[in-house]
Write a structure and sequence with these properties.
This protein is an all-alpha fold and 94 residues long. The chain contains 5 helices and no strands. Helices cover 71% and strands 0% of the residues.
């Protein structure tokens, strides 16, 4: 997540906000890695960028709670894997 934030200098965050975003990202990756039978590698840069983009999108819409940000990123990842409408959005932002 931190790498994603550094690639987007147009956004600035307090240290606490940065920590919350990174926590949300780490939580989402942990949930996805713990799943059995997942068809994606959560360590690849493009997948991690898509998760970070989903978290940033939710943040820009007003969600600030790391747990809820993480849950939204996991839902977006599920849609991406299923090829649902969120997958196009995530791929465009990655």
């Amino acid at each position: 997540m931190l790498s994603y934030l550094l690639l987007h200098p147009q956004w600035s965050f307090s240290p606490q906000e940065t920590a919350d975003l990174c926590t949300a990202f780490d939580m989402a990756v942990a949930v996805l890695q713990d799943r059995d039978g997942s068809s994606a590698s959560w360590a690849t840069d493009n997948v991690r960028a898509a998760l970070a983009a989903a978290i940033m999108e939710a943040w820009r819409r007003g969600e600030k709670d790391p747990r809820r940000l993480s849950e939204q990123a996991v839902r977006a990842a599920d849609a991406m894997l299923a090829g649902g409408p969120e997958s196009v959005k995530l791929n465009r932002q990655a």
